[in-house]
Design goal:
The chain is mainly beta and 242 residues long. The chain contains two helices and 18 strands.
């Protein structure tokens, strides 16, 4: 897993230069920008179309589950996410269904580009096994869990309940207005403070609906011992466990 600060600073003065990447026929000129520590993908084009910034990437055909995304960090450290398009290209140059290319599209008309940085979060599949194989394992049932009601008001999400188990932390609540769920997930940071003074952060987030409420689950690679948790930090708000 690698989260790279790409060092790109798309100030308003750069917009004209980026627009020149699109030629007079509307076709995209090819480029090949490699990113630090990433060998399974490169930027194949960048340009503005109808006020939106397009970042086209070309992915290796050998990848199994390599994936990732770009985002902007603005001056308030709020992540600005993109819309994505996946496709392939025929020999004649027309688009078709596929996943050889991923195009990240940002609406930057209301974004202060002079104070924003383009960053990326990308994950490689690493080692994988081919051929006939199987795996078996035993999993104990989750019987150690704490759950308690709360009222935490985030910018786009109202948290009504927090539960903590060996699998991680679950936040239950409702979105405000017409907020986008995916964008909301990217702007919630959760960490637990343990009684030995260490802090456990989470590297995986999943969400779903249940009884008209959104459940956001933060999980980690290692089990969490609930009895060792003293408090939970949610976007800087500390919740003490009773």
């Amino acid at each position: 897993m690698d989260e790279s600060n790409l060092g790109a600073d798309f100030s308003k003065g750069d917009e004209k230069a980026l627009s020149n990447i699109i030629n007079t026929y509307g076709q995209r000129l090819l480029m090949k920008i490699h990113l630090p520590k990433i060998d399974f993908m490169y930027i194949s084009n960048i340009g503005y179309i109808d006020g939106r910034l397009h970042i086209q990437t070309k992915w290796s055909k050998d990848n199994i589950d390599d994936h990732g995304y770009f985002y902007f960090d603005n001056i308030s450290d709020k992540k600005i996410s993109s819309g994505n398009i996946y496709y392939s290209v025929t020999k004649s140059g027309t688009a078709k269904n596929g996943r050889d290319y991923v195009e990240y599209i940002f609406d930057v008309q209301n974004l202060d580009l002079e104070n924003a940085k383009l960053k990326g979060h990308f994950v490689t599949n690493g080692n994988y096994v081919t051929g006939n194989w199987k795996v078996s394992f035993e999993m104990q049932s989750v019987n150690e869990e704490k759950s308690f009601p709360c009222s935490i008001d985030l910018d786009s999400f109202q948290i009504d309940n927090i539960s903590i188990s060996p699998l991680g932390v679950t936040l239950t609540g409702t979105l405000k207005g017409n907020e986008n769920k995916d964008a909301t997930l990217e702007n919630i940071d959760v960490a637990v403070n343990l009684n030995n003074g260490s802090v456990r952060k989470f590297d995986s987030v999943i969400s779903g609906m249940e009884n008209d409420k959104i459940k956001i689950k933060f999980t980690s690679d290692l089990p969490l011992y609930v009895s060792t948790v003293e408090s939970i930090d949610i976007n800087g708000t500390r919740v003490e466990l009773k």
